TrEMBL record:
This is SoxR reducing system protein RseC. The chain crosses the membrane at residues 79-98, 104-121. Pfam families: RseC_MucC (PF04246). It comes from Yersinia aldovae. PANTHER family: PROTEIN RSEC. InterPro entries: RseC, SigmaE_reg_RseC_MucC. NCBIfam families: PRK10862.1. Keywords: Membrane, Transmembrane, Transmembrane helix.
Length: 153
């Protein structure tokens, strides 16, 4: 199970809107100066991901929750998104190379195959979008912000 903590933005009628802050893969690494992954993360814009999760328990804005999704469904989604256009690209290029024997047509076939792969991936993704295995679930709920008090002595 892939897990991530998120912050509640709002909760209405059993649907929570959550904000997840992306973390770079090298967040705990000490070799930041020489890490290409860290440099690429610095170049990109700071972004937040919003997602909606069904949960019956009322939540307050600012409350932290742990959400999770199974590794299997995450892997299948990644394969669908990345592999389908790649197979289309290779198949389109190979087919046009076999039929026309010219590099220009091979490039056009590759572009056409990749485009068809993207469209197929989009159609398949819309089919599986509503399945419960592909939906994040709430694993843990933190205390509401109003319940936490710090006493100074």
């Amino acid at each position: 199970m892939m897990k991530e903590w998120a912050t509640v933005i709002s909760w209405q009628n059993g649907i929570a809107l959550l904000r997840c802050e992306p973390h770079s893969g090298c967040g705990s690494c000490h070799a930041r100066r020489g890490c290409g992954s860290h440099l690429l993360n610095e170049l990109g814009p700071e972004s937040e991901h919003h997602l909606q999760v069904a949960i019956l328990q009322p939540l307050e804005p600012g409350q932290r929750v742990e959400v999770g999704i199974s590794e299997g469904s995450l892997l299948r989604s990644a394969l669908l998104v990345y592999l389908t256009p790649l197979v289309g690209l290779i198949a389109g290029g190979a087919l046009f190379q076999f039929l026309f024997l010219a590099d220009v047509y091979t490039a056009l076939g590759s572009i056409s195959g990749a485009s068809l792969g993207f469209l197929l991936a989009r159609k398949l993704a819309s089919r599986i979008e509503g399945q419960s295995a592909y939906q994040p679930t709430v694993l843990q709920i933190g205390l509401p912000p109003a319940a936490i008090r710090i006493q100074q002595q």
